[in-house]
Write a structure and sequence with these properties.
There is one protein chain. It contains 7 helices and 10 strands. It has 251 residues and is an alpha/beta fold. Helix 6 links the parallel strand 7 and strand 8. Helix 4 crosses helix 5 and helix 5 runs parallel beside helix 6.
């Protein structure tokens, strides 16, 4: 079942600059898809169109989870986003609340009311990410990897059909990055599609799957060339290519 279907779509930044042209992009249920490319190549801009933070006005077709993005009404966007989970590089947790309260906030905001159901769901997702003993901790008491696990737990609260992960390992060390990758692959095997952007090519090579590349205003599938991938810029160390999400909001 196709969850995403873009045909000949042009992808624009907020200020009207076209970063990707004639995009053809399909994602099916349960697939894990890497989106790679240099910083500034359009990865984040493309992801933002999926959850309607940026509009698509030029395409033969642009559907996400059965919604026509060319005609979607603003009042229907929250319902679309409720079917997704979004994971960011900088976690975006509420610093003044415990892990439990962070997750409770999302559930209540999406219509959950009964405390017993809320408690049960929070326990279930924290167990799934290996943090069932961290419910009463605040984000600053957790490691970077633990904070990202909380962000993933938040993303799967409402049993989404699709997870969009924008550079989720960008601020993590290699070992922790692999732990996050294993968790995301486990989620995809349960039937939830995962789209993950990254410019960490060694990480991609260690986890072979469907791979698209943003380059020169084009999006192309390069899965068949996977083992021939090289570092996007071999003059930079992987750690030196990390970029804070706030610094690339319009990328």
């Amino acid at each position: 079942m196709k969850l995403i279907n873009y045909k000949n779509a042009n992808i624009y930044q907020r200020h009207g600059i076209c970063v990707l042209r004639n995009v053809n992009f399909e994602v099916e249920e349960g697939q894990f898809v890497f989106l790679i490319g240099r910083v500034g190549s359009g990865k984040t801009t493309l992801l933002r169109t999926l959850y309607c933070e940026l509009d698509i006005d030029e395409a033969d077709e642009a559907t996400v989870l059965g919604n026509d993005l060319l005609a979607i009404r603003p009042k229907d966007i929250p319902a679309l986003r409720k079917q997704m989970g979004i994971v960011f590089q900088d976690f975006q947790l509420l610093a003044d609340r415990t892990v439990y309260k962070n997750l409770e906030f999302v559930l209540k905001a999406t219509g959950w009311k009964k405390k017993e159901y809320i408690d049960e769901r929070i326990h279930k997702v924290l167990t799934a990410v290996g943090l069932d003993d961290k419910a009463e901790n605040r984000p600053f008491e957790l490691s970077g990897g633990e904070q990202q696990r909380v962000a993933i737990a938040r993303a799967i609260l409402n049993n989404p059909k699709l997870i969009i992960a924008d550079e989720p390992t960008g601020n993590l060390d290699p070992e922790t990055s692999q732990e996050i990758m294993k968790l995301l692959f486990k989620i995809s095997k349960s039937g939830t599609a995962v789209i993950m952007s990254t410019h960490n090519i060694p990480l991609v090579k260690e986890n072979p799957t469907i791979t698209f590349r943003c380059q020169d205003e084009k999006l192309e599938e390069i899965t068949s060339d996977f083992h021939n991938l090289v570092m996007i810029d071999d003059t930079l160390d992987v750690d030196e290519t990390k970029v804070r999400y706030s610094e690339r909001e319009e990328i």
